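Incident log, support desk, overnight shift.

02:14 A customer reports that sequence design results differ from what the structure should imply. Their input is reproduced verbatim below. On-call engineer (initials T.W.) acknowledged and began investigating.
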């Protein structure tokens, strides 16, 4: 395999990883700087390493992101195998062993597993849908669209609107998550998390309520970025650790917050 081929395939791997999000923050794990390595060897095996903002990030979140990375990269047709390794985490050995054996979260943690990972994934996909819908609705309301128009808008009519660059981005992000609650045959553009039509009388209140989900995620995103920076010094390319220097910041006791 030529160096050019390896470089091209590494780029494909990073593009696939860009589609994997932190389930709570709804941001790509690459943008959050969680992924530290994604290499391709001569046998078309992919080796991924990642880290998290704290030593004690929830095991189910950690496993879910690792599993999503593996699934996303496996979709590349030339990939023979994918290894995903979590570093510097209290459950790293257990999670890495489970991933290496292709085990599920429940199989890896046994009786310690709390809840179903697919159920957790759906919970956060719905929250991501709500955040993206609230952002798009707020944009359209600010652009002068009346609630009566928005609740009756079809998917085709929504896609045909003359958006600017910011609107195009909001629309694309919303359409990515809309299938979480809506069937592909559903004509209405906007539905609630239960798949029911929105009501014009309550639309402003509905959007304000969804903003609470967004504010919570934005707060946790800033918190996670700050913790990651404090833990790994993400702004400096290489910082040799002095002999005897502690690996962990001494006073990190903050966890993600639900508002």
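02:41 Re-run completed on a clean worker. Output:
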């Amino acid at each position: 395999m030529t160096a050019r081929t390896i470089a091209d395939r590494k780029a494909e791997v990073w593009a696939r990883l860009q589609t994997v999000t932190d389930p709570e923050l709804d941001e790509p794990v690459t943008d959050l700087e969680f992924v530290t390595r994604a290499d391709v060897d001569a046998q078309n095996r992919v080796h991924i390493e990642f880290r998290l903002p704290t030593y004690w990030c929830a095991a189910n979140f950690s496993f879910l992101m690792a599993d999503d990375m593996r699934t996303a990269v496996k979709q590349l047709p030339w990939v023979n195998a994918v290894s995903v390794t979590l570093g510097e985490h209290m459950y790293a050995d257990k999670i890495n062993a489970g991933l290496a054996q292709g085990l599920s979260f429940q199989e890896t943690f046994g009786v310690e597993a709390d809840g179903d990972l697919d159920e957790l994934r759906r919970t956060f996909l719905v929250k991501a849908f709500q955040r993206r819908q609230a952002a798009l609705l707020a944009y359209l309301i600010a652009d002068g669209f009346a609630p009566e128009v928005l609740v009756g808008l079809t998917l085709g009519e929504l896609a045909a609107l003359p958006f600017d660059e910011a609107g195009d981005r909001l629309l694309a992000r919303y359409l990515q998550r809309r299938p979480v609650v809506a069937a592909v045959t559903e004509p209405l553009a906007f539905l609630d998390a239960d798949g029911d039509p929105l009501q014009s009388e309550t639309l402003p209140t509905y959007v304000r309520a969804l903003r609470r989900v967004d504010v919570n995620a934005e707060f946790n995103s800033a918190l996670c970025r700050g913790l990651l920076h404090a833990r790994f010094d993400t702004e400096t390319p290489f910082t040799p650790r002095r002999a005897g220097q502690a690996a962990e910041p001494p006073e990190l006791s903050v966890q993600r917050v639900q508002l």
